[in-house]
Amino acid sequence: MTMASETKLPVRTSEESVSALSAMKAVFSRDLKTAFRQPQDLLNPLLFFVMVVTLFPLGVSPEVSFLREAGSGILWVAALLSVLLSLDHLYRHDFDDGTLEQLVLQPQPLFLLVLAKSLAHWVLTGLPLVMLAPVLGVMVHLEGNSVAILCLTLLIGTPVLSLIGSIGAALTLGLRSAGVLLSLLIIPLYIPVLIFGTGTVMAASESAPVGGQLALMGAFLVLALTLAPFASAAALRISLSNS
């Protein structure tokens, strides 16, 4: 007795994979070029980050012992708010000029294009914050090992902020007072990253092991990379269908 012919599953060809990768590169490079044409959108989060960290000692206490203890929390909260400040522009310009609708209609998977936009947002916002962190860490009297761990936690944590933030930016697209609603939606999701980021730096300042906390932050990053693009793509389709 002969076996029935097997049902062939759809397989992504190499040409389709190359096409999707090329589309991601095109979206990524376009977002970078667009951002550099509007430097104020790049500078505002960075200036906000520097101002918050600089003004905090003036408003609370300039004592070295206090700043050394609270420095990691100051820097992480400032970084979180700086990323949040820039999220409203993640899809706004593309939505206003109709580019976003064209992206949704592309044959490539939308979640890959969303991932490219989220990575571009991190390069433009999160990465500069990581580069500024050592200077500001010294300003709040963090020690050398703590500064290194601070930069490492920001390097792992800020992409998570951009990926999670893209979900909120997609959900609030086209709404009035979107900035306020975006903050209400996203800040609760940021809290675990904030807790572990701050706690890791504080543990390093006390010479305690930080491997477990860094592993958890890495797990947050993997989880965000896996799930956030799909959630953002679904949110974009909903927002565009309701606009």
The strand count comes to 0
User: Helices and strands, in N-to-C order?
Assistant: HHHHHHHHH
Q: Kindly state the percentage of residues in helix.
A: over 70%
Round the Cα radius of gyration to an integer and report it. Answer: 21 Å
Computed structural class: mainly alpha
Strand content range: under 5%
**Average pLDDT across residues?**
87
Pick out the low-confidence regions. Answer: 1-12
Largest sheet: none
Total number of helical segments? 9
| Approximate shape | elongated
Care to describe what's here?
The chain is mainly alpha-helical. The protein has one domain. It is 83% helix and 0% strand. It is elongated.
Keywords:
mainly alpha; disordered N terminus; 243 residues
Walk me through the topology.
Blueprint: H1 14-37, H2 39-59, H3 64-86, H4 89-97, H5 99-104, H6 110-139, H7 144-171, H8 178-205, H9 211-242
Helix pairs in contact: 1-6, 2-3, 2-6, 3-6, 3-7, 3-8, 6-7, 6-9, 7-8, 7-9, 8-9
Short synopsis of the structure:
The protein has 243 residues and is mainly α. It has helices spanning 14-37, 39-59, 64-86, 89-97, 99-104, 110-139, 144-171, 178-205, 211-242.
